[in-house]
Predict the structure.
Amino acid sequence: MSRDGLRRLLGGCAVAGSVLFTVAWLVAWSVQDDYSPRREDISALAALDAQHAWIMIAGIVALGLGLLALGLGLVNAIHDGASATVGSVLLVLAGLDFVAAGLARNDCSSELQACKERVDSGDVSWHHNVHDLLGVAVFLLLVIAPLVLARAFRADSRWSDLRRYSLVTGALTFALLLVVFAEAFEGWNGLLQRVLLAVPLLWIAVLGTRLARASTQARPLREVS
């Protein structure tokens, strides 16, 4: 397979990962008897007590693999050394985090009072705690990666129009992350998490589409000091 062909494949995988993740939580929600997407987060659909957890697990892993594909596809695809490399590595790390989070499942729905009491008392498994830590890490990576790649995009004519969009994505993701962590709107964390995730998911799909279409023959706009 040619380099362009491989990049088209990896870009398509990035788009597919975002789409499959979204479809997964919608389907998993529809087959869960007692679940509130307004109150409960997406991880609850993959928890040990979820009725059809495999659906959401598959969606989380698919998103992780899509991010991994995007990170690998961007290697040497942008004409800016350091920023492009760091941004690609951050996406790969985010992808690995998502895959690990899909396998290290919560014990229960953390937004429900009974589960919160278990967490507060330490009566949860190691993988419940690992999942939550990975969740924090992956959101931080999805804040930093767009900001780093925005700097790389300004040096390449194929990507320069996505620079401002990437800056806005990183800043908006960070602002929404603060709102979610602050629990400023009690009982609405599930909806807020979905809004938070929608911002980087769309960005991932846009970058995947651009990667699939980008020509390796384009020249950089200028050198970056």
Remarks:
- Helices lie at 3-30, 53-74, 81-103, 113-121, 126-153, 163-182, 189-213.
- Confidence is low (pLDDT under 50) at residues 216-225.
